[in-house]
Amino acid sequence: MSSRRQWLQQMAITTTGLGILPELKARNLNARPGADQLILLNSNENAFGPSPLAIKAMTEAAARSNRYPDDYLPDFRKKLATHWAVAPENIAMGGGATEIIALTCQMLGARGTGNIVTSTPSYQVWHRQAAVCGLTIQQAPLNDMRQFDLDAMAQKTNSETRMVYVCNPNNPTGLALPFEPMRAQVLEMSKKTMVMVDEAYTELAEIPSMATDAAKNPNLLVVKTFSKVYGLAGARLGYAIGHPDAIAKISALQGWRDVSVSMVTCAAASASLDDTQFVKDCIRRTAANRDTCYKTLNELGLPYLPSQTSFILFDIGKLKGDFSQRMEAEKIMVQYRDHFNGKWCRVSMGTETEMGLFCKALRKISA
What we know:
Elements: H1 3-11, H2 15-18, H3 21-26, E1 39-40, H4 52-62, H5 73-83, E2 91-94, H6 97-109, E3 114-120, H7 127-132, E4 135-141, H8 150-156, E5 161-167, H9 179-189, E6 194-198, H10 202-205, H11 211-215, E7 220-225, E8 238-242, H12 244-252, H13 263-274, H14 276-300, E9 311-315, H15 323-329, E10 332-333, E11 335-339, E12 342-348, H16 352-366
Parallel strand pairs: 1-10, 3-4, 3-5, 5-6, 6-7
Antiparallel strand pairs: 2-8, 7-8, 9-12, 11-12
Helix pairs in contact: 4-13, 5-13, 14-16
């Protein structure tokens, strides 16, 4: 530990002295300024987080925010690497998974024009960054089971393909591919081009990661986030796991690698890794809330996809009126989706109370 870091730690103001933690605990963690007590079920946020340990760590770290985080990020990178049984040089961190994907697009776009192959519907916020970097998007429809069709994607891959993007489990369907067959196909595709596997929801789905594969494969990147099960969407921390050569190229686009994440965010993420009970509770409560929604959807005859994530995609084609507006009139925010030649809603899981209110509103709208 450097003498500078020791001095910073000695100078840190304690949580008790700041008097911030009780105030944070008293607040509604799901409230948004100006939201007028809306129930926010539209952005796949964790309604139960951040963990108490993360809140405490953020509060303590805030007192050190006058210093750059370059003394702290390397230690956290080591901790994150140990968590995934990889090396620190296998990890690049940034402000959310979407930023990491955008940096990857910049890296790939440096080669000139080309395309990225993916499926539709899937997570596509990053498509704008790809376009700015001169990359076009080639999309294959999901298969009949509403999963990524890796065979169809492989057929779209050509000499101009710079990357194949796989979101597993997928957003907005909530479905994951069987791991071993998916892994085999991804590794095969990586022999021809780079493959990115977006694992934002693997912790919630309790399925394996391809992290160790990515660490030794120059053409494979795994992207992960602290926004979902760890409840740190507002703190903004995403990261890539990959071969040191690919990670070095991505990190080079950041300018100053070890100040890409704030000290407060770094502290929160580190504490979140330690709070394994909080993670288990979030997974359990999310699954229970999905079951509550399934019962209501079955009762109302509304088809849905059985999700492995923190959201459910269900068919609202038979409901009258503007579904989103009718839900907002009940002070509930959801996402309307045009998918599979029909009308669908993606609803994120909130707290038990919030999901009870959602189900009540859904019954009212369906009447």
